[in-house]
Amino acid sequence: MALPGPFERLIGLLKRLPGVGEKSARRMAFFVFQAPEGYSIELADAFLSLKKNLSVCEICGNLTDRQPCNICSDPLRDRSTLCVVEGIEDLLSIEQAGVYDGLYYVLGGTVSPLDGEDLPEGSLDGLINMIERGRVSEVIVATNPRVEGDMTYHAVLSALKGMSDLKKSRLSYGLPVGGSIEFADRVTLHAAMETRIFVSGED
Amino acid sequence: MALPGPFERLIGLLKRLPGVGEKSARRMAFFVFQAPEGYSIELADAFLSLKKNLSVCEICGNLTDRQPCNICSDPLRDRSTLCVVEGIEDLLSIEQAGVYDGLYYVLGGTVSPLDGEDLPEGSLDGLINMIERGRVSEVIVATNPRVEGDMTYHAVLSALKGMSDLKKSRLSYGLPVGGSIEFADRVTLHAAMETRIFVSGED
Ligand SMILES: [Zn+2]
Ligand SMILES: [Zn+2]
């Protein structure tokens, strides 16, 4: 039997979401069908509002509904420390863990050895801009513990090579190697932040 | 940090869905933010359309966008067999498994011994209606293998007590095919032992 069209259609769309398979999409659609109509109306509106009202911070690349973002404009954050991450997901995970109160810079990608791809065009310019215009004294390179992350770490370091007053560090490998920051638990993230390795010279 | 309002709002709504926690809601919202706008527009519309265009079949209780539903109006289905299920989820699972081609009747609930609750008002009337108006010769009571399901099974049976020409059956309980004795719980093992199949001759 084909399920009714509106049901199949919603399931098809839900299955595109990360981590959602046929069965869970079906359960979700069914839940929505049984919930009060207000819930679908709110959900529909929230999806539309996400694309309409959210953008990317022009300074740091964070997800935001204003320019600059909450973090860049927060006077209570430590403006001497800059944490460089691959993507917004990583920034969100570190924020959720509550283990860091400096600024961020989102690269928006990694060096990709297999595709022969470099960091996204201009992504290091924005980083250097933040360092030069601000009063950053330490850059923590918080890339993921994978080949791409390591290569990205080295690409960032080499872009900062001339800045000898700048402390450079990376997260320590308390992170499960082969895993990702996004799925790390709070304690692991905290440990990785605490035991970050300071980098001297040309490493 | 509080995440931007539109992001938090969507996450809050997504977390109400079955099987969706904080992290997966965040990943979903983030996916939607990064996907082309057409996706959120489609998704929003699909949620609204679900409530607008779907209802419950007036004959059998199935989810449908027409009256009567696909199954009730399908001339190729075996109209002599009626499968009674607790809820639409069960109907959908049996349909997806493709192991049955008769009609259904959805009770829309179970007998609930702890709450002292009976089957939903009038749900047995609809069942008797289907049997009397149709040419049903067998009723399969496919309730879930739990206390509620068993009590519901007995409630259905006693409602059909007068109909002596009608065959009545229930799904067999036993080991899940592909599963193992090692991991089967005690109750399942007991059921599998009690309803063991006697083998005659050379089989
Ligand atoms: Zn920012
Ligand atoms: Zn029907």
From TrEMBL, chains A, B:
Which PROSITE patterns has this protein been placed in? RECR, TOPRIM
Task: State a single Gene Ontology molecular function.
Answer: DNA binding
Query: What role is this protein assigned?
Result: May play a role in DNA repair. It seems to be involved in an RecBC-independent recombinational process of DNA repair. It may act with RecF and RecO.
Q: Name one Pfam family in it.
A: RecR_ZnF
- Tell me the Gene Ontology biological-process terms attached to this UniProt entry: DNA recombination; DNA repair
HAMAP family the record matches: RecR
Q: Which gene encodes it?
A: recR
Q: Which organism is it from?
A: Dethiosulfovibrio peptidovorans DSM 11002
The protein's matches in SMART domains, at most eight in alphabetical order, are given as: TOPRIM
Q: Where are the zinc fingers (C4-type)?
A: 57-72
Q: This chain belongs to which protein, by name?
A: Recombination protein RecR
Q: Which residues form the Toprim domain?
A: 80-176
Spell out the PANTHER family in the cross-references. RECOMBINATION PROTEIN RECR (PTHR30446:SF0)
Looking up NCBIfam families in the UniProt record yields: recR
- What UniProt keywords are attached to this protein's entry? DNA damage, DNA recombination, DNA repair, Metal-binding, Zinc, Zinc-finger
